[in-house]
């Protein structure tokens, strides 16, 4: 029982950090992504039907925080270059992964 309690206590800072990153990512998504993408179930639908909803991106089996963070920082034809920092990309990835359907 003590080991379980210690494991839970040790995980709290990491969970709090992940929540903070997702909150920063949500703010960023509302600023730069929501024009095209549906960013969450609570948000208005994105205006570009070719832009996948974040829940669909998060549901892909090969998607990780690292692949999302790398992808959003690479300029490509279907998405403008928003000039995101590494931390912004990581925060956005945390928010996108939080949209994974349960």
UniProtKB/TrEMBL annotation:
SUPFAM superfamilies recorded: Cytochrome c
GO MF entries: electron transfer activity; heme binding; metal ion binding
Domain Cytochrome c: from-to ranges: 20-100
A Pfam family the protein falls into: Cytochrome_CBB3
Family annotation (PROSITE patterns): CYTC (PS51007)
Alphabetically ordered keywords of this record: Heme, Iron, Metal-binding, Signal
Gene3D superfamilies assigned to the protein according to its UniProt record, in alphabetical order: Cytochrome c-like domain
InterPro entries: Cyt_c-like_dom, Cyt_c-like_dom_sf
Signal peptide: 1-18
Protein's UniProt name: Cytochrome c
Species this protein is from: Falsiroseomonas algicola
């Amino acid at each position: 029982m003590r080991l379980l309690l210690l494991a839970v206590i040790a995980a709290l800072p990491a969970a709090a950090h992940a929540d903070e990153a997702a909150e920063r990512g949500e703010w960023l998504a509302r600023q730069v992504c929501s024009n095209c993408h549906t960013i969450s179930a609570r948000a208005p639908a994105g205006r570009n039907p070719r832009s996948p909803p974040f829940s669909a991106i998060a549901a892909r089996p090969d998607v990780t925080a690292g692949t999302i963070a790398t992808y959003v920082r690479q300029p490509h034809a279907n998405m403008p270059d928003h000039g995101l920092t590494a931390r912004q990309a990581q925060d956005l990835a945390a928010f996108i992964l939080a949209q994974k359907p349960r």
